[in-house]
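Appendix C reproduces, verbatim, an entry submitted by the partner laboratory led by Prof. M.T., so that reviewers can inspect both the input and the predicted structure.
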Amino acid sequence: MKLLFLTVFLLALAALLQAQQDVTTLLFQNVKSKLSAAEKKSIATSLAFIPSGNKDQPFALDKDSKEYPFGATAYPTDLNGDGTEEIFVLFGNSYTSGNTGSSIAAFIRNAAGKYEMNLGFPGTLPDVLTTKNMGYPDLLIGGPGMEYPVFRWKGKIYDNFKSVKDADYEKLKKTSLEEVSKQYQAGLK
């Protein structure tokens, strides 16, 4: 009986480890990054996605939500120019993210060298503003509504700083995070 339990446990553990590897591979597929395999796995594990079994929308939140699969894209950057990557992940759909249709998470290395999740809420891919605090640029994150929240680096997290009215959005000096990530990746060897 103990042998049967141990066998079942080991098979379940192997399936879980394979699912985590699949999520990591899918998340960082076609992405140039300096992250180690362990750092990529840590980020993928923090997101807690599972494979959905859908080729075009490869992720799900859990086994009970596989009928609502979604995509996810990782965007490596070095926003503060210190040589250490920050990773943004845009993911989701209306099931995971409501009316916005996507969520945004940012992974920033802490003083202990571990990547911690920041943001982690429904929103669009940020615009990177020219204004900065503590070396990091302010981020404008869109979503439903008539105003755009601006998040400012507070030393350990990005926190809500102010809102920008829809009418003032076009006046801002900004670059899409997608473009920032493309430029960063193009500079990697």
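The radius of gyration is 18 Å. Additional entries are available on request from the coordinating office.
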